[in-house]
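Quick one from the shared queue. A colleague (R.T.) flagged NAD-dependent protein deacetylase as missing a structural entry in our internal table.

Convert sequence to structure tokens.
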Amino acid sequence: MSLDHKSLKNKSPSKTGEQDTNQASSTDEEDGSSVFSFVSRLQKDLEHKLGLGSDENLSKVLDEVSLDGFVNYIKNQNCKNIITLAGAGISTSAGIPDFRSPGTGLYDNLQKYNLPHPQAIFELDFFNENPKPFFVLAKELYPGSFKPTLSHYFIRMLHEKGLLLRHYTQNIDTLERVAGIPDEKLVEAHGSFYTGHCLHCRAEYELNWMKDRIFKDEIPTCEKCPGVVKPDIVFFGENLPDKFSNAIEEDFSQCDLLIILGSSLVVHPFASLVDMAPSHVPRLLINREKAGHRTGIMAMLGISGGLEFDKKGNTRDVAWLGDCDEGCLLLAEKLGWGSELKDLHKKEHQEIDKKEGKTTKVSSDTKSEDSK
Ligand SMILES: [Zn+2]
């Protein structure tokens, strides 16, 4: 939308001053100044930490600060707007390597391309110079070669039960889409392979068009110009998609429960999302190790936010440590959704295999060992 700054500036806040001010600020918001709202939230948080602000809702909402506390909170229908934040940990059991960390073997395959450093593969400058290594990696990681995990189906279940406000993912593997989480519930913060654009003329291409070329070991080249078509994944130094900033603006004030799945919460601004939820909202981390908590001088200053499971007086944060799928299954079981989740997982995988003309073999992670 267009915003006429001039007319706003020229309007003097005389007799209808209050109205004018309101107008101006709401227009600002519509204009997408999420930076403004982010800063004001940080400010509010700081005031709260320093005991300056009037915090409207400090009452604790969990009856106990444990996984069971979360289960009761959900079971008692106290929350309807769950936000889930996910990282690579929800996809590792699908066989997708954590390709951002060197030493996974993936980068070793790329040595022949003489990358100046592993991350160069996700840098635009390098890509412009030599897009080949990226597409070799893309072929290995390409969506369609992997199946969603139990964790993905857990998120879909939250949606189907009317509890999911939005799922934010750092992953570019599109497994959320494959798992049936609808587009409007999904924010792919680091983009995805779902669409691509010509770097020269910005023409849009869809997943299968790119896939055909990438699997023929070709570099996808625009049909309208000689530009290279790059999948819409966010490279280092690129802005996050508009959908990301628009959605956080809309979502976090409504959020009544935050679940962080398989993310070490180190990549910003994604990692800062944990601080965007109102200060009474319970936050559950399901991850192999503790993450998102501030340590050292940051913690001493007490102004940096983060998850508070190790802090005195914590009433809302819980870390469940272990494998993401196990954590999701345990949570589902405690909620009475265990067999429903396992059935969904199995049924969906059979569908995918059928489409690919394979016979289903039950992998070890779907084999049921529980009889609850
Ligand atoms: Zn083009």
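Residues 198, 200-201, 203, 222, 224-225, 227 surround zinc ion (CB under 6 Å).
The domain at 67-334 is CATH 3.40.50.1220 (Rossmann fold).
Added to the table.
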